[in-house]
């Protein structure tokens, strides 16, 4: 990829990060395939620049393949995929029913995977491209009331890390983005358990209430996040992981420190689980 204007495909653009990212890219003069399950909510974005509006439900692999094919047919290529589409659900782990747990994985993990599979053949042929997977600070650390949501984001982090090792030698970059609380509709639009368990009132219950109270008051600015993602991908050395928000930075760095302390405290036990060196070497 050169440093001139690029072709981007962004998922989940009806609101929140997806809309903010699309708006920023179009105002910067990029060509953008703007997708959502219902494209009527995207009409205003077409007035901002070279936008291709496409219907897309990322859970459907055929729709993912078609969106990629239509984008390539219209713009000639895809330089950057932004996997943004996702949903939330508030419940303690025990309070989460199987239907909602599987839906979170279908959208947040398998939906992103569907898009990755769809764009990789073209990127491999050109030996060029970038894949941006929006996970969450919840993809690096667990939080009460969003256990299965964070599980889906942890899974996407793991897939991204392996994918990076496989495709970077082919000229394709993979970046995960880990935001903390941003002023989007996510917290207000997420479903939640209808059968709360009293024992979790002080943990998951309190967290659910905090999410509700945070709507419209989150510290993060989606417009600034969109600019940060754009600038990171265009930089000479894009990061593998991009934290967004003070809370994200603080939580991530605190977790690294805590893990290091615990690993070192149990280092002897960890190292002692291997066969002794003499046995390994066949002596």
Automatic annotation (TrEMBL):
Name assigned to this protein: Short-chain dehydrogenase/reductase
One Gene Ontology molecular-function label: oxidoreductase activity
Pfam families: adh_short
Keyword tags: Membrane, Oxidoreductase, Transmembrane, Transmembrane helix
Provenance organism: Allosphingosinicella deserti
Lineage of the species this protein comes from: Bacteria, Pseudomonadati, Pseudomonadota, Alphaproteobacteria, Sphingomonadales
Similarity comment: Belongs to the short-chain dehydrogenases/reductases (SDR) family.
Spans through the membrane: 130-151
InterPro entries for this protein: NAD(P)-bd_dom_sf, Sc_DH/Rdtase_CS, SDR_fam, SDR_oxidoreductase
Keyword Transmembrane: yes
């Amino acid at each position: 990829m050169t440093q001139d204007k690029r072709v981007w495909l962004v998922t989940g653009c009806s609101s929140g990060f997806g809309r903010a990212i699309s708006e920023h890219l179009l105002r910067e003069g990029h060509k953008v395939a703007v997708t959502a399950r219902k494209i009527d909510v995207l009409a205003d974005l077409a007035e901002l620049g070279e936008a291709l509006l496409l219907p897309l439900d990322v859970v459907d692999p055929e729709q993912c393949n078609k969106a990629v094919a239509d984008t390539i047919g219209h713009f000639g290529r895809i330089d950057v995929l932004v996997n943004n589409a996702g949903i939330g659900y508030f419940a303690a782990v025990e309070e989460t029913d199987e239907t909602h747990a599987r839906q979170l994985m279908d959208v947040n993990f398998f939906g992103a995977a569907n898009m990755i599979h769809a764009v990789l053949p073209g990127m491999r042929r050109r030996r060029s491209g970038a894949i941006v997977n929006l996970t969450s600070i919840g993809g690096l650390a667990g939080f009460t009331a969003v256990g299965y949501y964070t599980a889906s984001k942890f899974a996407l982090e793991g897939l991204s890390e392996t994918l990076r090792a496989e495709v970077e030698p082919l000229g394709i970059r993979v970046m995960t983005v880990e935001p903390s609380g941003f002023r989007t509709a996510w917290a207000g639009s997420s479903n939640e358990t209808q059968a709360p368990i009293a024992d979790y009132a002080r943990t998951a219950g309190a967290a659910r209430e905090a999410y509700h109270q945070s709507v419209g008051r989150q510290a993060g600015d989606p417009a600034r996040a969109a600019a940060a993602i754009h600038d990171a991908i265009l930089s000479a050395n894009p990061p593998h992981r991009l934290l967004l928000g003070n809370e994200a930075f603080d939580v991530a760095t605190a977790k690294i420190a805590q893990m290091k302390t615990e690993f070192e405290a149990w280092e002897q036990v960890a190292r002692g689980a291997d066969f002794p060196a003499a046995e390994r070497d066949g002596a």
